[in-house]
Amino acid sequence: MRVALDGTPLLGRRTGIGRYTENLLTALADCHDIAVSVTAFTLRAAGELSAAVPAGVRTRSLPVPARLLRSMWSHSEIPPVGLFSGRADVFHATNFVLPPTGRAGGVVTIHDLAYLTMPETVDATSRALRELVPRSLARAAAVCTPTRSIAEQVMDAYGPAVPDVVVTPLGVDPEWLTVQPPDARTRSRLGVPADYFLFVGTREPRKDLATLLTAYALFRHDWGRTAARDVEGGPPSLLLVGPSGWGADQEPAAGVAIRDFSPTSELRSIVAGARALVMPSRDEGFGLPALEGLAAGVPVIVSDAPALVEVTGGHATVFAIGDTDGLAGALNEVTTRGDEPDEQAAAVLRRYAAGWTWQRCAEATVGAYRRAARTES
């Protein structure tokens, strides 16, 4: 089967969707009955795309402004995607927007519905999905979602317009399962504190950093009046790792440090060295940093956003969305466990995370491709 895949998220610094696309593509390249090619819808594709895909994967693109294409595809069925990707049995749109597919079967990945359910928390590009996604569903023969929670939301929101839905859970690289906390020299090289809570992700309203920062301030205020006063070295810092995104700027606060970007090799060490990884999101489609935290054997604290609860599977501390007191209490509880790592607990977290593989994601996705190919044949 010939599959063309939208590789636009591979370009530039990798967001969560970029990492999904990268790892899915790598796993698909090992599927012997699938011939994968990659295209991108941007002016810079020709210069960057070939270097962003695994060896042996074919790329084909035409330099066209992405905004122009999105505008055209929101109102018409031209230009067909084959003009960019070449001939394929299936075209997979990895980032919400499925172009007109011509004779190819269409598959689209819908990562979350924040653009529909929480439009105030997303930027203008994401809000445009309110018009683009329904057209994508009309063109698609199959829809991929990262979790059952999002699959249910898609079906509830769009009803009969939804074609076959296939849940394609994301995975973790094996390197996450063996990573060790950084030693003092590595911490110094990376510029991270000796003791810290960690947030990983784009700093945008949907991630609800306001709740995290308020809860962290409460935690610091109460530090001297709790069992945590016995922990040497003062309260842990709060390290925010990820791009600035959009929305109101967060004022610097006591104990808070920001690192705009870390390549994956460094990020693994940073995660492994955290006292806990925290995801306070108001909405998530999957929550890959939470799973990677578990894979690194690190305690994870998440909001009760359905996808985060689903993915962590009872192995994270859960607090109610927006509950600053609940989150502050969870931060305090983590510090009372002491400074020595609990190897037995870490092993349980790693075993759980090891069941989430990119190969499983690829196999489920190939199932969606086969449905789409049969629909078009």
What does this structure look like?
- The strands form 2 sheets. Strands 3-2-1-4-5-6-7 form a 7-stranded parallel sheet, sandwiched between helices. A 6-stranded parallel sheet has the order 10-9-8-11-12-13, sandwiched between helices.
- The chain has 2 domains: 2-170 and 357-376, Glycogen Phosphorylase B (Rossmann fold, 3-Layer(aba) Sandwich), CATH 3.40.50.2000; 174-354, Glycogen Phosphorylase B (Rossmann fold, 3-Layer(aba) Sandwich), CATH 3.40.50.
- Strand 1 (2-6), helix 1 and strand 2 form a beta-alpha-beta unit.
- Helix 1 packs across helix 16 (358-376), helix 10 (209-222) packs across helix 14 and helix 12 (288-295) crosses helix 15.
- The longest helix has 19 residues, at 358-376.
- The chain has helices spanning 16-28, 45-52, 66-73, 82-85, 114-117, 124-127, 129-139, 148-158, 184-190, 209-222, 264-272, 288-295, 306-312, 324-335, 343-354, 358-376; strands spanning 2-6, 35-39, 58-59, 90-93, 105-109, 142-145, 164-167, 196-200, 237-241, 256-259, 276-279, 300-303, 317-319.
- It starts with a strand and ends with a helix.
- The protein is an alpha/beta fold and 377 residues long.
- Helices cover 40% and strands 14% of the residues.
Present the secondary structure layout:
Elements: E1 2-6, H1 16-28, E2 35-39, H2 45-52, E3 58-59, H3 66-73, H4 82-85, E4 90-93, E5 105-109, H5 114-117, H6 124-127, H7 129-139, E6 142-145, H8 148-158, E7 164-167, H9 184-190, E8 196-200, H10 209-222, E9 237-241, E10 256-259, H11 264-272, E11 276-279, H12 288-295, E12 300-303, H13 306-312, E13 317-319, H14 324-335, H15 343-354, H16 358-376
Helix pairs in contact: 1-16, 10-14, 12-15
